[in-house]
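Private note to self, pasted from the team thread so I don't lose it. Backbone tokens:
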């Protein structure tokens, strides 16, 4: 069986960039704009991150503060309106340069493309959020570098459900043994590992306390020559993740 590494599949929020603080601020600004007195402080937001998806997160919180109102038939429309407001605010902040890709992400993607590896996205965030984040470093035609883009619009069942990865493997025409996934959270790791996709975890400040049993590697970030990892790891020529290290780790997983 051919198990050569062929594709890299990336989560977005927390993995490509540390976006959660900007998300939190955008939620709060949307609530204020809507005339609500809701305010998600960092401690509360950390707990809410256990709920995947922005719409789902809003509804979960609403049920906790006013179960009757949240159970009203009109609640779903209200949640969708709030989330649309939040997305607009988030997109404006990211487009202004409030968020940058994490170390190693852009370099590793460029190396993969140069080596004819395929790139894919498997996320639970909205298409607008992905566009806002990636059109700055990769340009308006950023979608062209990805062979598959799975998001909240195409895969409605959120992580840890593996739906977005199932659809990704089908779209790529590859088995799990031909890929490596990149995640930052337990939910994401569980989604990828449910299909036996080897997964590298780079926790964000919002997920670093979670458990990552079953991960191929757990690293603070992917590293760059100008922003190296704290130390080199077995199989790495440098203090950053390159394709040689990925291929070695992938063979170990196989």
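Design output:
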């Amino acid at each position: 069986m051919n198990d050569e590494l062929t594709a890299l599949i990336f989560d977005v929020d927390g993995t490509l960039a540390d976006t959660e603080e900007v998300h939190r601020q955008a939620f709060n600004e949307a609530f204020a704009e809507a005339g609500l007195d809701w305010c998600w402080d960092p401690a509360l937001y950390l707990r809410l991150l256990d709920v995947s998806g922005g719409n789902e997160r809003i509804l979960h919180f609403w049920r906790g503060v006013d179960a009757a109102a949240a159970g009203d038939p009109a609640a779903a429309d209200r949640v969708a309106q709030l989330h649309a407001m939040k997305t607009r605010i988030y997109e404006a902040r990211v487009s202004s340069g409030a968020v940058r890709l994490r170390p190693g992400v852009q370099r590793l993607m460029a190396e993969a493309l140069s080596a004819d590896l395929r790139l894919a996205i498997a996320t639970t965030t909205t298409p607008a959020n992905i566009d806002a984040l990636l059109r700055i470093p990769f340009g308006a035609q950023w979608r062209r570098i990805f062979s598959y883009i799975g998001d909240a619009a195409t895969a409605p069942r959120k992580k840890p459900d593996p739906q977005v990865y199932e659809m990704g493997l089908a779209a790529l025409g590859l088995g799990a043994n031909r890929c490596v996934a990149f995640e930052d959270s337990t939910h994401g790791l569980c989604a990828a590992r449910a299909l036996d996709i080897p997964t590298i975890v780079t926790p964000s400040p919002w997920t670093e306390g979670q458990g990552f049993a079953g991960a191929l590697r757990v690293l603070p970030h992917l590293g760059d020559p100008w922003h190296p990892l704290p130390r080199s790891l077995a199989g790495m020529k440098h203090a950053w993740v390159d394709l040689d290290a990925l291929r070695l780790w992938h063979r170990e997983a196989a």
